[in-house]
Design goal:
two-stranded antiparallel ribbon, mainly alpha, 2 strands
C-alpha cells in the first residue's frame, strides 16, 4: 500500500458519506479544480481528530487537514502541479500553510520543497512552525546539519517539547551539543532553568564544561535535573529518558 492509499484508507474510516462524495468529485478535477478544493476543504470536511496513521504521527491533526494533504498529492502529479503548489504557498493563510507543510514528506520528489521547509523554521506563526517541527519526518530526512540545528534550537529557545521532533536523537551532533552547553550557561547566568530533557542531546558528546554541568545538575534542587544527571552518569539507554518527556513550565 503506497502513501496515498494509506491516507485514503484513514480518510475513509473517519469521513461521512457526504464528505467522501465531495472528495471523490474533486479528485477528478484538473489542477485548478484541485487547488480550489484544497482551499474549500474545511468548509466541506469536519475537523475530526485523526490520531495515528501507521508510520506517521497525526496525533494533533484533523480530518480536513488530512483531506488537504491528499488533494495536494494528486495536485503534485499534474503537469503544472509544482507551480500550483508554489502559488498555494505564496497565497496561503495560516491553516492552509499548516496543511502544506504537513504534506511535504509525502509529495513526489519531496527534496524540491526544502526551501519551503526551511522557511517554516523561520516563521513567527506558531502553528506553521509546529507543522514542520513536530511529528513531521521531513526535517530529519532532508535538512542539512545547520538547518536541523536551527530547528532544534528554536524549539528549545521557545520552550517547546523537543521530544515531538522526529529523529531528534538520531541527528544529535557535536555542534548542537556545544551550542546547547553555551545556552545552558546563559540561562543559568540569568537565573533561569534549562529543560531537563535537553541534556539527552549532549549525553553522547564531550563539551568543555560537561563534567561541571553534570555536577551542577546532580546538585540541583529540581528532581528533573537530578534525573538528567543520573541518566548521563549511568550511560542510560535512550528509552530511560522518556521519563523527562514532559512539559516543564518553570524556566
Amino acid at each position: 500500500m503506497n502513501t496515498a492509499e494509506l491516507l485514503y484508507q484513514s480518510i475513509q474510516s473517519l469521513a461521512s458519506t457526504t464528505e467522501l462524495a465531495w472528495l471523490e468529485d474533486k479528485l477528478i478535477a484538473d489542477s485548478k479544480g484541485l487547488s480550489l478544493a484544497f482551499v474549500m476543504a474545511p468548509r466541506q470536511v469536519a475537523k475530526t481528530r485523526v490520531g495515528i496513521i501507521p508510520g506517521w504521527n497525526w496525533q494533533n491533526g484533523t480530518l480536513d487537514q488530512l483531506v488537504r494533504v491528499y488533494l495536494l498529492i494528486h495536485l503534485a502529479e499534474k503537469e503544472d502541479g509544482k507551480s500550483r503548489i508554489e502559488t498555494l504557498f505564496d497565497t496561503a493563510e495560516m491553516n492552509e500553510l499548516v496543511a502544506l507543510y504537513r504534506a511535504l514528506p509525502v509529495l513526489p520528489t519531496p527534496e524540491i520543497w526544502l526551501h519551503r521547509a526551511t522557511d517554516a523554521v523561520r516563521s513567527n506563526m506558531g502553528p506553521v512552525f509546529d507543522a514542520i517541527a513536530f511529528g513531521n519526518p521531513y526535517p530529519t530526512t532532508y535538512f542539512s546539519e545547520l538547518a536541523w540545528n536551527q530547528l532544534v534550537l528554536k524549539c528549545i529557545f521557545n520552550d517547546k517539547p523537543i521530544h515531538l521532533i522526529e529523529g531528534l536523537d538520531e541527528r544529535a551532533n557535536q555542534a548542537l551539543a556545544n551550542t546547547l552547553a553555551d545556552f545552558a550557561h546563559e540561562r543559568w547566568a540569568a537565573g533561569r532553568r534549562v529543560p531537563s530533557q535537553v541534556w539527552r542531546l549532549i549525553r553522547n558528546f564531550q563539551t568543555e564544561t560537561k563534567e561541571q554541568d553534570i555536577k551542577r545538575l546532580a546538585e540541583s534542587a529540581d528532581p528533573n535535573d537530578q534525573k538528567a544527571a543520573e541518566l548521563i552518569l549511568e550511560n542510560s539507554p535512550l528509552e530511560a529518558w522518556r521519563v523527562l518527556e514532559k512539559e516543564e513550565t518553570a524556566y
